[in-house]
Each structure stands twice: as structure tokens, then as C-alpha cells.
Amino acid sequence: MAGDSKKRIYELAKDYKISSSALLKILRELGLHPKSHMSVASPDIIKATSEKFAQEKKEAKKEMDHQTQAKTAAKKKVPSKAGEKKTGAPTVAGLMKKFERKVKRKERRKKKNRKVVDKDAVAKSFKSTMANLSGTRAKKKYRRTAQTSGETGHLDANVVEVNEFMSVAEVAKLIDHKPAELVAKLFELGVMATINQRLDIDTIETVASEFGFEIIQVADVGDVAREDEVADHLAKRSPVVTVMGHVDHGKTSLLDYIRKTSVVSGEAGAITQHIGAYDVVFKGEHIAFLDTPGHEAFTAMRARGTQITDVVVLVVAADDGVQPQTLEAIDHARAGDVPIIVAINKIDKPNANSEQIRTQLSNYNLLSEDWGGETIMVEISAKHGTGVDKLLEMILLQAEMMSLKADPSIRGQGVVVDARLERGRGPVATVMIQKGTCTVGDSVVAGVNHGRIRTITNDRDENLQQIGPSTPAQITGLNGVPQAGDTFISVKSDQEAKEISLKRTHIKREQDVRRTLGRASLDQIFARIKEGQVEELRLVIKADVDGSVEVLSDTLGKITHDEVKATIIHRGVGAITESDVLLAAASDAVIIGFHVTPDIRAREVAKHENIDIRLYDVIYEAEDNIRKALSGMLAPEVTEKFVGMAEVRDLFKVPKVGMVAGCYVKEGRFQRTDKVRLVRDGKIIYTGQLSSLRRFKDDAREVKEGFECGIGIENFNDLKVGDIIEAIEMVETARTL
What does pTM read for this prediction? Predict the structure, then answer.
């Protein structure tokens, strides 16, 4: 977790150059019982481990000294053998006796059927044990597909690199056993599997340990194809800057002035409609800019595990002040742990007030350097260019303080910033190279897609032959359109690219099927606290009015626990949006909604990303649930499950019934027994029961998506055209720990 200074078990294992499972086994023998390799290494654990290895080294050194002394003594006095002269020359009689003894020994071995000791195996075992005790690990060379001829990766003989959702056959090949043996072992463990069935990481670890192997999980398929940077080859690289801020505050106008081109004039309504990546030269130094349609792209990349931004330039209009999207941009940048430089734009406007902007930003812990803070703030006019040079100087100064470096001598590695399908060119991907160099003709993998680079062009449509670190460019030649945030790597051959692409496709399919765990949720938070995996419960708070946001934030922010605290990473007014869900996904947070509901897109993304969204009507209920989650007392509770949504398109007044809404079911289904809530402009207006559900003139028991129906709400007639009616059912959720 960002900012975590405590050492984990797996990090302690790395210090002693042993596997995590080996260290866990040693700790359990010492009477210490951490939950997993992600548990925090307490001072007792660190002290016990240090003492254990110090003692082992001492005993090993003593044993080795004893063996050395014995060998030295043996060399000084070697007795002459029977049948040999003292000069060392053997006699005929001596040779005959030696041959007879050899024959008799063979016969005795046959009679007794004595087992022959494998001396090589004994020697190998002894070397491995002594190496572990002396703080080093026995090495075995494995050829790694990513490396140039002659290079080898070093792994312990019983350690293999795996990725999640490998098939039984692939695991069997890694540990050099027949697939049938693994299938049989899995059956013994209670897992029914076929040779081609894919296993989760826990199952792979279990079955590998049964055959005496330990595993190291590779973060992504293709990671072994990445070349490691060489320290001697590291060179200074350009900073990558993301421009963020409220709509119409001048983000693209600023970049337009910097690039001396007409980006704005080509955009619909002068608002950025795509992600642009541009390379700018200022005083001989390069700066790579990302111009985004908002902070969603910035956060979507973080949600996919990639972070390419070095600095965020927050554009705030001097005549408009801090706006909702400004605050969201601040929260997203902070969640990504990226330094912020504020550009106060439009200072040429008559009603511009830069001091007011500084005051407003200071309320959000962005204190200007002029006022004794640490945030760089520059007054600019994107229209006339006033202060733009100073802004660029500040960016380069910030980059110099960060000491950004990369190795340009290896094969290219980077991230897909944007991608689209163009007629006549096929898939076109905008990529940002982070390290290494890519050349036309290179075999590449981008996400689940692969290909050979056909063309490379920069933001001015100039053809390039190669691109290096911190350089944005558009490439063609992929077999499909990748997603923003996908990793981009150059590999040795087309065959290797196809293999990585195929494996990633299989894993993505498996992840989509099994995507049920992994995100923070109130039901699981206490179990993760106990294992030392969580030190803060991150919250995104949305409410119907600003007053509720303030009260809810203050109430939840004060909740504390012995080992964990509640941290609010974003708060806002209005319906829960896709941006909120993306931020929660990237930050492993829980969303708390008060008198608001998710919009359609937010609900889809939340379902896909498995984000826990909790909706409340009473503040103390939210506080109570958070407290119980942190203290591990969250009891089974009845929750509301969204099952359908309909839009009100007409209204009818029916005698003895009241107001009936003519609706179109846009999602899910409606049943006569459902509980419903009425949503207007993203706010919950009323919650109650259905009084009637009709199709034409007949009562209906159920109406599904795509059909029209008449809906009456019990004891409620204040319906309006455009209202949203959501069907919900009450579900009892069991607590899982």
C-alpha cells in the first residue's frame, strides 16, 4: 500500500535470499504464526529470524572448519596400503589381492541387495543446504526467452516462475512431471481437474509444493520477456506530464500554445474528445505531455496497474475558481501519489483573481510556495502565452529533483495511452515508451494483441524509425485494438509475441469468469486486517447535498482501530459516476453513497471491477457498519440488490388507484412483489412497494427488459416524466471472514 513503511514477510525473506514459504515454515518452528507472506513482520519476527540465521551460520562455519582440519590432517599422514611398496609402485601380488577384494565386494552387494548411494545427489543436497545457511542460494541456470544469447536467469533448483491460471499441462512441464501425475495429486487433494484445466494461484502453489517445488508468481505473462535495465546504461529521461482540471479551464488551449499548432480548432466544441500524447522541446529539453478528456483516463490506467505520469499539471481558471472536476483531479492525482504543479490560467481576464484561487486551493492542502507551502503555482495565460515559459521551467525543475532515468539500450517497454481502428491503417495505438527503444520491424505485444511494428509516427504525423524512453508515438501493425493502460513490450520474434498474446488471452478469459474476489469490501475487510494486508480502509463518499458530505466525511474520518484507519480519498455531491468507480478500483476503496444511487455506466463498471458500493439513508448506519467492519463484528445483514430499472415516459391518472407511470424497462426486470425506489436527477426521492404492475390492460407478474409496462407505487403519486424507477430485492448477505 502506498506509503507503507512496515516490512512484510516476503520482503524479509528476500533479505535472507530464501522463499517466502521457507521463511514461514521456519517462523512456525520458532513458535511464531504469521498468516501469510503478506503479513507484517513484527519486531519479534525480525529478531527471531536474525538470531536463527546467525546461529545457523555459526554452526555451518564450525562444521566447515572441522572438515577442513580433518582433510589437512589426512593429507599430512597417508598410510601405505598392503601389497604396495613405500615408493608407491604397486607389486603384482598387491594388484591381484586388490582385484580379488573388488570381486568379493561385488558379490556381497548382490547377495545383500544393498542400495547404492547416489553420491551426486548427496553432494547436491549438501551444497544446497550449506548455501542456504551461509546466506546465499544454490544457483541453477534456466534459459529465459527474453534474454540475448548467452544470458541466463538464476533461480533456485526447486523454485519455478508461474503466472495465475496456468493449465495443468503447463505446470507439469515446469516442474518436470507428467500431467497425469498432477491430475492424480489434485484428485487426492479434492480437486477434479483435466490436463487442460486452468488453476488459480493457490492451487498451483499447493500442487507444486506436493512435488517439492516452490513458486514465484510473475505479475504478468510476458514479464520474463522483459529485459532488465543495466545500471551502467541508465541515462536521463524526459518527464511525462498529465494535464488535468475542470472542463473549459484551458487544458488543451495551454498545450495548443506550447505545441504551436491548432489542436483546439480540430476538436468538436473545443473540448478534447480523445487522449493525445505530445512531445515538446523547451530549451533543448524534451517534455512528454498527455492531454486527457478528464481524469478518468489517468485513473483507468492506474486501475489496470500502470502508472506513466511523473507530474500532474492542474489547470485552474482564475475567473472561475475551484470547481468539482478540479477537486476530483486533485484527489485522483493524490491517490496516484504524483506531484502537482498548479497552472492558474486566464489571468488576462478582467475578473481574474489568482489570490482567491490560492486561498481556495489552500483549503485542500495545496499551499503555494509563495505562502510557505510546497506546491508550485504559476500564473499563465494560455491565450497570450504569459507565464508559459516559467511553467515549463518549473516542470523541468520538478523533473530534475525526481532524477528520472531509463536504459535506452534494451528492447522497448511502455504503456498504451490510446488506441483506435482507422480505415486504411487498421489498429492504431498511441504508446508511451518508458524504457528501452522500439524500432520499425520489431515484434511487439500490447495487452492481448501482438504484431510487428509497421510504422511509427509522432504527434505531428512525421515518420520515425525508432523511439526511446519518455517518447510518445503512434504505431501500426497490431492484429487488434488494445485498451488504454495495456502494457506494451518488444520481444525477440513473432513466435514469442504470438505465444504471449495467446496466454494473455486465456488468462483474461479466465479472469473475467472468476472475477469475484480481490477488491476491498466491508464483509472481508477484517480478515484482511488480521493478515496485515490492510492498514487503511479507503472510502469514496458521495451524497445528495454538500452538508451531508461534510457530516459523513467528518463522522467516518474519525473512526479508528488498533491496526487500521478509515481514509477518505474523495468526496463529492451528486450521483455515483463512472469516475468514482474507477477511482475506487484504482485505489482499492469502498464507495459510500448517502441518498444517491449509481448511474447506469457506474453500475456496469462496478459490476465488472467488483467494487463494493454501500448506499445509506441514515448517517449513523454508515458509521456503525464501518466500525463493525474494522472491528470484525459485521453481522449478516439484509442488503438491497438492484434487479431492474425503468424510465417514466408518460403518466396516467386511474380512479381508485392513483397515478400510474407508463414506463419502458431499460435494464433487468420488474416483478409484482418488488420493492422500488424513485430516482430523480440522481437523487433518491422515495422508496416503497409496487402497488400495481400491468402490461396493457392485464396485470403482469413480471416484465422484462425491452418491454413497456404500467407501474404504480404504493402511497406515492408525485411522479414526473423522466423519473427513473429502480426495482430492488432484499438479500441477506452472510458475513465472510
Answer: 0.52
